[in-house]
Amino acid sequence: MPMPNLSDPGWSGPGQPYPSQTDPGQTNPGRSDPDRSRLVLIPSYDTGPRLLQTVREACAAWAPVWVVVDGSTDGSDVLLREAMGDDPGFRLIALPANGGKGAAVLAGLRLAAAEGFRQALVMDADGQHPAASIGAFMAAAAAAPDALILGRPVFGADAPLLRVRGRRISNWWANLETLGAGIGDSLFGFRVYPIAPLLRVMQRHRWMRRFDFDPEAAVRLAWAGVPLVNLPAPVRYLRPAEGGVSHFRYGRDNLLLTWMHMRLVCGMLPRLPRLFTRRLIARRLRRPPRDATGLPPATRR
């Protein structure tokens, strides 16, 4: 599987369109047969026409690509069936009612695990996440199959300042709750998850079903001892005229995150001895949380 280069001159920078390997309306003739252990999983709720473009970009970079339509009422499942039904690397999973991002991911993971998949790259349907980075993230996942590959967002000029600064609060709490395990960004959802550990975590708890999925998944996997690897990934915010869709609600979702962090802080307390021990061992072995640079955080510039 060819790996896109994050520094490729075809990508003109943060906030700019991502390069496509092929015409978005065509199947990539150079794409290899579907991978049997890693898949791309795209949860979607009322994303509109932009969903088809996202799926085509993902299918040009990787196979298989599964889309979980989470009770959408915009007809996007019909559009996908008509446009992508002949692609052997594509699968559509339509849920009867909206349950939230985490619930949609969980439904896809259960099916993927039943078919023998070990890792899933989860990306948003709204065009924020870079399909051109799928190959690089999958290569990192193949090199560290037990790790959580976390995207670290590279923002462009189109990023709302409130969103960029506001996420620092969640990041601070996530690193407190894990004693600095190495979560580069707790809210960025472009990630490769090890399926079995994530399923174990999600099936033990009734939370992590909506906007709280991304940060809580990272924290609980860190608690479980899953290694963390951070890789940079460009992120863009599309205007409505470009097909951009956002279901983020400032008051509702920030209340959900506040409640989540309260629960996680309480969950951290009985885990403190284990977290302190793990941190001390990591220091003694000089193997701090890794980044794409391969350097420990204290020496990165």
Could you explain how this protein is built, in words?
With 301 residues, this protein is an alpha/beta fold. The chain has one domain (38-288): Spore Coat Polysaccharide Biosynthesis Protein SpsA, Chain A. The chain contains nine helices and eight strands. Strands 3-2-1-4-6-5-7-8 form an eight-stranded mixed beta sheet, with helices on both faces. Strand 1 (38-44), helix 1 and strand 2 (65-70) form a beta-alpha-beta unit. Helix 3 crosses helix 6 (195-204), helix 5 packs parallel to helix 7 and helix 5 (161-177) packs parallel to helix 8 (250-268). It is globular and about 55 Å long.
Shape: globular
Termini gap: 31 Å
Q: Total strand count, please? A: 8
Question: At the first level of CATH, what is the class?
Answer: Alpha Beta
In CATH, the topology is named: Spore Coat Polysaccharide Biosynthesis Protein SpsA, Chain A
Order of helices and strands: EHEHEHEHEHEHHEHHE
Q: Which sheet architecture does the biggest sheet show?
A: 8 strands, mixed
CATH superfamily: Spore Coat Polysaccharide Biosynthesis Protein SpsA, Chain A
Number of helices: 9
CATH architecture: Alpha-Beta Complex
* Helix fraction by DSSP (H/I, runs of at least 4): 25-40%
Strand line-up across the major sheet: 3-2-1-4-6-5-7-8
Could you say how many structural domains there are in total? Answer: 1
Radius of gyration: 18 Å
- Unreliable parts: 1-30
Mean pLDDT rating: 83
The amount of beta strand, in percent, is 5-15%
Instruction: Decide which structural class fits the backbone.
Output: alpha/beta
